[in-house]
Amino acid sequence: MAQAASVEELVSQTKSKYALVVAAARRGRAIMDGYQPLVQVNATKPVTIALEEIQRGLVSVEVPPSGIK
């Protein structure tokens, strides 16, 4: 099993800490609501599973355009 990515690696992959947090929280909530995880990992926390899915490119992270207020 591959080692989990660090937060810095995920942020560099997504280019936005905010977008990463929002995507992981949304996907984690979906997993809590009954959606099946897209990966098999030993993690039990939904957000940890979501971050693994993001790392593997199975969940996209949408970065909002800059300048939105």
Automatic annotation (TrEMBL):
Belongs to the RNA polymerase subunit omega family. It comes from Sulfobacillus harzensis. The keyword Disulfide bond does not apply. One of its GO terms (cellular component) is DNA-directed RNA polymerase complex. The gene is rpoZ. It comes from the Bacteria. Keywords: DNA-directed RNA polymerase, Nucleotidyltransferase, Transcription, Transferase. This is DNA-directed RNA polymerase subunit omega. It catalyses: RNA(n) + a ribonucleoside 5'-triphosphate = RNA(n+1) + diphosphate. Pfam families: RNA_pol_Rpb6 (PF01192). It is an enzyme of class 2 (transferase).
